[in-house]
C-alpha cells in the first residue's frame, strides 16, 4: 500500500525494519489531542509499551474545532501556559495542525485529524490512521527496547485471538466508538432516539464478553487492542460525550453551553477502586435489549448477583 496515494488519501506508513521508516529512538513525533479517543489509542500504546523516550509528542487544544475537516483548527497554544494539557508544536511552532499536514502535502484535501505520527528524519508524515497505528505500533520498536523493558512482552494482537479481535473490532467501531458520535451529534430527536440504544447494546455486549471470559479484560486475563478501543471511548462517556462535548456542540439548542455539575475531577478519592469487587450487570431497557438482539443475535442477560 502506498504511504499517501493522493491528496484525498490518508497516510498509511508503517515503522518496521523492512520499510523506509526504520525503528529509531528520537526519530518520530506524535501529534495528539487529549480530548480525542482515537488519538488516545495511540498514546495508550506509547505509554503501555514504554515508548515515551522513543517518540516525543505535541498536543493540540480541544477548541476551536473548525469545520467538518478541522479547518482551521485544531490549534496549538501560543505558549506553554495558555491551555492546560496542550503544548506548543514542538517541531515547527505551527499555529494550526493543518500546517503540519501541508508540510507533507500542500494540496491535501482530507480531514486534519489526530493522531499523526511524523518522521523527523525524512520530514514527512508516517501515519494518521488510529486503527492502523493501534495494530502495528505495539511491536514496531521492540527491536530497540531494552530486553527487560516492562512493556516489551506485551502483545495486544496475539495470534491465538486475532480472528476474535477482528470480529469484535467491526461492531465495536460501528456501535460504540462511532456510536457515541452518531447519538451525540444526531441532528434530530428521532435520530438521537434511534442511535442511543445501539450504544448501550454495545456496552451490554462488552459486559457479557468480560463475564464470559472471566475478566479482568474483555477477552480474559490478557490485555488486547480491544481493551484500548473500549477504554478510550468509555473513559470519556460522562466527562466528554455528555458533560463536555454535548453541551458545547449544539449551539442552536444550548447557546450558553450550560453544563450540568459533575462528574467531579477527583471523585475517585471517595471510591473503592478494587474493581474485582464489582459485579457485572447490564442496561435492561426494552429498547436496548431489542437493539442488542437485532445487532448481535442475542439479548441474553448476565445472571443477577443481587
Automatic annotation (TrEMBL):
Residues that bind glutathione: 74, 111-114, 129-130
Organism: Fusarium irregulare
GO cellular component entries: cytoplasm
Xref: SUPFAM superfamilies: GST C-terminal domain-like, Thioredoxin-like
Active site positions, chain numbering: 36 (nucleophile), 181 (proton donor/acceptor)
GST N-terminal domain mapped to chain residues: 35-139
Name listed for the protein in its UniProt record: GST N-terminal domain-containing protein
One Gene Ontology MF term: glutathione transferase activity
A Pfam entry, by short name: GST_C_2
Superkingdom of source: Eukaryota
